[in-house]
Specification:
Number of helices: 6
Distance between the termini: 14 Å
Shape: elongated
Oligomer: single chain
Structural class: mainly alpha
Helix content: over 70%
Order of helices and strands: HHHHHH
Length: 213
């Protein structure tokens, strides 16, 4: 399989996985008899999200290579995405690995330790939100840069360029406006918007002539 084909498939598969993750992502802090099941679901969806990152990184590497590493906007976009990918893995680790341990500790803790664990849960939430904001900002910039550097003409190329600039700049503006809260609903909206562009880019990559070695 050529790199362009493999990259396009990786982007489509990674995008579908992230949509599934957001669709099954639990919201809020679990309580009561269902807490164990909710925490297990949270661990699973965040593990899938982390596993998806190398897949989509490969896809975007293939996309950037196909455009050409001598294309400055596209190559810069890849590096923006790369650092954003690290940030989203850290955000997922906070919610999927750290938070469940703290919640389990809180359930078993004595009353005297409850306030300390609650404070640690708040710190975990702040770290999760910070990493998520970094990811959204850097990925939005990457989408805009890839769109600026996208070569070729035609309907698909124009759709990739226009949609990428609108989505990349639009999501970034929404973030810096302070009105975007990256809870399940807010992050879900961001993932859907960015996924629309990724699907276009994946089909654009699949349609490109394989780059000679």
């Amino acid at each position: 399989m050529k790199l362009e084909s493999a990259g396009g498939v990786a982007l489509l598969a990674g995008t579908l996985a992230m949509i599934a993750v957001m669709a099954h992502h639990p919201s809020g802090v679990p309580h009561g008899s269902e807490a164990g099941a909710v925490m297990r679901l949270g661990i699973i969806v965040h593990a899938v999200a982390i596993a998806t990152v190398p897949l989509t990184t490969f896809g975007f590497f293939a996309l950037t290579r196909s455009i050409g590493f001598d294309n400055a906007p596209a190559t810069l976009g890849f590096f923006f995405y790369l650092f954003g990918a690290v940030a989203v893995m850290l955000a997922a680790a906070m919610s999927g690995l750290v938070a469940p341990r703290l919640i389990e500790a809180q359930m078993a803790a004595a009353a005297a330790d409850q306030s300390m664990i609650h404070a640690l849960l708040r710190l975990e939430w702040y770290l999760n939100q910070s990493f998520a904001q970094i990811h959204v900002a850097l990925f939005s910039a990457a989408i805009a840069l890839w769109s600026l550097g996208w070569p070729g003409k035609g309907v698909l190329a124009a759709a990739i360029q226009i949609a990428g600039l609108v989505i990349g700049i639009g999501v970034f503006a929404w973030l810096v406006s302070g009105t975007l809260t990256l809870d399940v609903r807010g992050m879900g909206a961001v993932v859907l918007a960015q996924s629309a562009w990724i699907v276009l880019a994946a089909f654009g990559l699949l349609a490109r002539t394989p780059k000679s070695q």
